[in-house]
Write a structure and sequence with these properties.
This protein has about 140 residues and is an all-alpha fold. The chain has helices spanning about 10-35, 35-75, 85-120. The chain has 3 helices and no strands. The protein is elongated. The mean pLDDT is about 80.
């Protein structure tokens, strides 16, 4: 979508912040899978810090702000994009970024819930292991 509507720089930055913050997520899942509790906790803390910095600070304060304040000048004034075309696409693209920010906040609240379970019960439980409808009992 970003490349089709000439927002490739914004799309690249969105991919970059997601890729950077996904590394601790995967490491935390891996450490939890092999039952390394100390490593799981360390990776979880790094993951939460990276999430706050990349997805809750850089994404809205840098990327969304740039879309709001700079795209018209960059694409219409200095570029070759028709103003009517920019205005139509801008609202759709901006709406998608706001929806993604809402998802980041929602997922962060889930991370806080996992962190609370970790602190209060001392359990390193992966909430994605048990899907709805599956039992917690092991088959014999």
């Amino acid at each position: 979508l970003a490349s089709y509507y000439r927002f490739t720089r914004v799309g690249s930055m969105v991919f970059l912040i997601h890729d950077v913050s996904d590394v601790p997520i995967d490491l935390s899942k891996l450490a939890n899978f092999v039952k390394w509790k100390a490593t799981t906790i360390t990776c979880f803390i790094i993951m939460v810090c990276m999430w706050i910095v990349t997805r809750l600070y850089i994404f809205p304060a840098v990327i969304i702000k740039a879309v709001v304040t700079e795209t018209h000048e960059y694409l219409v004034v200095k570029g070759t994009v028709d103003p009517a075309y920019h205005d139509a696409v801008y609202l759709m693209f901006y709406g998608g970024l706001i929806a993604l920010l809402f998802l980041h906040v929602t997922w962060f609240l889930i991370l806080l819930r996992i962190g609370w379970t970790l602190v209060s019960k001392g359990e390193t439980h992966d909430y994605s292991e048990h899907k709805s409808g599956e039992s917690d009992k092991k088959d014999s």
